[in-house]
Amino acid sequence: MDKMNEKEYMVWLHSIDGIGNKTLENLLKIFGSAENIFKAPIEKFNQFRGINKAIVNNIVKNRNPYYINELMNKIKKHNIEIIGRNSKEYPENLKNIYNPPYLLYKKGTILKKDENAIAIVGSRKASSYGKYVAYKLASDLAKKGIVVISGMAYGVDTMAHKGALEHGGRTIAVLGCGLDTCYPKANYHLMLEIEKSGAVISEYSIETKPLPGNFPVRNRIISGMSKGVIVVEASINSGSLITVEFALEQGREVFAIPGNINSSLSAGTNKLIKEGAKLVTDIEDVLEELHIEIDEKEENQIPLSALESKVYNVILDKQPIHIELLLKELSWNVDKVSSIITVLQLKGLVEQLPGKLLIAK
Questions:
Q1: What is the pTM of this model?
Q2: Is residue 238 in a domain?
Q3: Domain co-membership, 133 together with 249
Q4: Are residues 62 and 115 in the same domain?
Q5: What is the domain range of residue 351?
Q6: Do 108 and 219 form a contact (C-beta atoms < 8 A)?
């Protein structure tokens, strides 16, 4: 078996039950390296107070090079990359938060432009209004080249990721479990799309289950990787408000979408606004507050065929335009024009208003 390096020893240590970020930090302060922990005699552990005996037993029980080799093979099998805190690829925004993860597990890519990312969070049981707003904000951010971060949960998170992806943008999902697990399972295909166009990351070792206690902890990464956090919908006791607490501790800006005063899903966001969060009605409110200037070259251009471009440009030039007038302008048959309009609507570039009026978005 090949000689192991410190990174592999760290992955081993990180995988042991009971060893979270703080325990890992304490052990490294005492022993100096993960390799030293692997090789230390059990008597040395007993010299230090504050090291839980159950954790010591777990360390000793798993001090097997074959276990480490098996662990690394599983990580490789799932195409997972490991980023240490001192790595150049480690997200710059995370380095300066309290209690940054020692290790990040990643599928996909992390880029320099991700430093301007905006987080969109909210209720898992979002209303149709909340889902629409999350999708719209994410799609508008994507069109401006801004990366969207969320937690891949049901409701607001899912719609935020979809809004970014379906408008040519990058998005990052931060999970509360190991990357060999998709949670929720229904988002498996979404997870694959996020990997292709951005990244799926976690601070949890593979084979870590999506335990309820993991999610509040992972929220510090969602806010920590972002320049600002937009809360779309949240009840008074929503987990999204934990993300807000982390954001405020980290010096991030907090934004909230106003909602129906009779809806419990708006109680949290309306309260945030009363307490000083910036009220948001469109992404310009966010970009202006964060002083993010968009280079036109950076704006994501949605690819159009020659025919799609021609239809879009006529609508843009003469909007609002009735579909009958559009047919006359183009001198094409109705089936051809209708199919192209449908494609433009799916790409989020055209909207049909009542009365068959068309506008460019």
A1: 0.81
A2: yes
A3: yes
A4: no
A5: 306-360
A6: no
